[in-house]
Amino acid sequence: MDFWELAMILLRRWYAFVPVLLATVGLTYFGTEAPETIHHAQSTVLVTRIPDDLAGLNPYARDETTAQTMATIMGSPEAREEVIAAGGSEVFTVTPAAERSALLLVQGSAGADEEALATTSVVIEAMQERLQALQTEAGVKPRAPRSRVVVVSPPSLAAPETGSRLRELGVGIAVGGLLAVAVALAVEGLARRRAKKRSAEDPAAPVVEDAAESGDAEESAAQEQTDREPADEASASSDEDPSAEPERELLSR
Fold first, then answer.
1. Rounded (5°) CA angle 58-63-68
2. pLDDT score of 237 more than 50
3. Where is this region: Disordered (predicted)?
């Protein structure tokens, strides 16, 4: 079956194709929950640098390297569980502001403004504690110069992200289209089997595809029969015996 044959079947069986498509799209679109609005809060922090003459053996003395390390650590599952346990949302990001930059952008996302702000604050506190713990594990003395996470801009709300139903609509169109095509092909196959069955029962009957075409064929046959009747009468009149004409003239006199 090529494209044009399929298109003709869908046009002929539109009464089966269109309702199924519309019903499936409608159920998919209105039957799913509306996506919630996601609220965001953002903050900028700075990883401080330790002067080279005071760095000593501190492996976190360089601010750019330490900032990249902290962004990687905060993206780990362990850090995410720590933030959740402290009352934050599981959705947050920590990314460098630019390549080889000591600035980090912290963003927390949640279903409400207050939760997004709280998540951002919790992430910053977790970063500060984690950096100090790393330096302690590296053997840096408590009174020795240390790298720190300093808040440059406090957490503030960003533009919320409104959910869209375009994905649900796309899924409904795809699924509804496939289902509607299947129904249309099933109706077409049923009509053809009925036509073949009628043809087998009455070989003289014209082969039609459905009841509508059958009705058109019967109407056409009746019209042809009506058109033939005047011609048959004229032919019968012309075939009468010529010898009967004088007798009819005498009777009329």
1. 105
2. no
3. 194-253
